[in-house]
Amino acid sequence: xxxxxxxxxxxxxxxxxxxxxxxxxxxxxxxxxxxxxxxxxxxxxxxxxxxxxxxxxxxxxxxxxxxxxxxxxxxxxxxxxxxxxxxxxxxxxxxxxxxxxxxxxxxxxxxxxxxxxxxxxxxxxxxxxxxxxxxxxxxxxxxxxxxxxxxxxxxxxxxxxxxxxxxxxxxxxxxxxxxxxxxxxxxxxxxxxxxxxxxxxxxxxxxxxxxxxxxxxxxxxxxxxxxxxxxxxxxxxxxxxxxxxxxxxxxxxxxxxxxxxxxxxxxxxxxxxxxxxxxxxxxxxxxxxxxxxxxxxxxxxxxxxxxxxxxxxxxxxxxxxxxxxxxxxxxxxxxxxxxxxxxxxxxxxxxxxxxxxxxxxxxxxxxxxxxxxxxxxxxxxxxxxxxxxxxxxxxxxxxxxxxxxxxxxxxxxxxxxxxxxxxxxxxxxxxxxxxxxxxxxxxxxxxxxxxxxxxxxxxxxxxxxxxxxxxxxxxxxxxxxxxxxxxxxxxxxxxxxxxxxxxxxxxxxxxxxxxxxxxxxxxxxxxxxxxxxxxxxxxxxxxxxxxxxxxxxxxxxxxxxxxxxxxxxxxxxxxxxxxxxxxxxxxxxxxxxxxxxxxxxxxxxxxxxxxxxxxxxxxxxxxxxxxxxxxxxxxxxxxxxxxxx
Length: 645
Ligand code: ASP
Prior knowledge:
Bound molecules: aspartic acid
Structural class: alpha+beta
Main location: mitochondrion
Subunit structure: Homodimer.
Catalytic activity: tRNA(Asp) + L-aspartate + ATP = L-aspartyl-tRNA(Asp) + AMP + diphosphate
Radius of gyration: 30 Å
EC number: 6.1.1.12
Enzyme class: ligase
């Protein structure tokens, strides 16, 4: 058979492992990162003028003649100089004898952060002068020649991780910020995880890495897209919010298993965990079901996970959307700690407390609570006040704090109205201990849960600022959330429906009939992957039947099907059943590195307001450059001026 043989030949050739003879030399963090992820050290000094990296030299190199290139990290008393490159630091002795006066001049006069090349011999440090904190601390370089490759002017900030700088300054001089150890670590770890993901997907599981266009057209029913003008009057491209349509079309095209490290664009403004442009590990497979995708992703993360972190344990636990909302008040629960939401409606059926009575008299009324462990010890009166204010301002809900003091006497304004039997039942259901505080609210299920879900996280933050360790920083708690509703009421008009994931998501097989009777109740085959309370991925099994897709788009979502006629047509031409997922790479790396923001794991991120502070982007364009696009800018001030005329 012709086809399989060329295909298997291609794969055999591509996946043959590269054998290296270089002995790994451990020490610097970057090296251990490499060791942990690749189990072999690449050749760092091939094709370049240096013989070694600064960070790699050890006692085993004693007596070797080396050439190093790097940045001057600091200089001490014109006798020592510490040279830095991506691999680490090394101490260089500045020669003091007359014959080496020119070398001394170069090394003593070059400002810090200048780039120099030095050649010399690796010698051991005098006894007692070793630096055990430095991986290269047993040796130093006795310099023979030096060359100043480029002098550095006065810097806007010191290149030292411990020197605090504002984020705006870091972003303005990003190329300097990238010299920091932390940024180097983050970007290299990112590169290595992506490499391992490629290896897992392509070499171990036969995926094909395919690039899809970034100039495309609007996809209905999703995030806001960026527009790109074209030279045809009034016609625009859109930057895709994801390669969703293309990856499905690749399945129709028989590619079978696709993946891409895909750049995506959403015009939604930045937040700590969002960027207008971001990267997804985008995946699609034919003939797969939900469990197949879940196992693939569990294997992918396990395989690409850095070895210096606790290993990923699979399979990940699964929770339904309904359970997540009822227990954690959110579809992305942080399962590293308890403080779960408990329904205590039955305890208060005969209550005399007004707002509880009110809520329970309504058809969908409930009473819910969370227990803050040792809250009485750690929460201050003003914390409780701000919790109550938050509930009132954002949810129009009342919060009742119930304190238990050390001898279990009720210490709360409502104490008088809680009967002894209710008190005991509450303690039993909530498993409260002395010093705990119960936060209680009443109202419609979703609203009460959402509020308590927010308060759960707020209180966890508060307790942690007061020294309680609730969330182990070394713990990675993965969770699948499944059985989402297919549709949600639109925020701006709750009588209309919008897709909970996207309009290509297939309904749950047992709920298809509901599409024609009660679509709001239909569950979907959509799954999200959550890590430590952050959504790091989402996907679905897709609709591969054109008729069903058309019905959902046109009848239920009231979308213009003409915009998707190409996709609908493709589904009619023998589309295989298929499904996929996308992992948010920036968010994932941010969590793995423990960075405060996704901007810390992106080389050139946009600022909080979507600007590139280094190049001042977005920028204005002269009117003549806009002419070919048939665009004229009317600035807000212009139109005011026009109105004034
Ligand atoms: N394209 C989807 C997203 O970006 C992911 C998927 O359904 O595969 O959320």
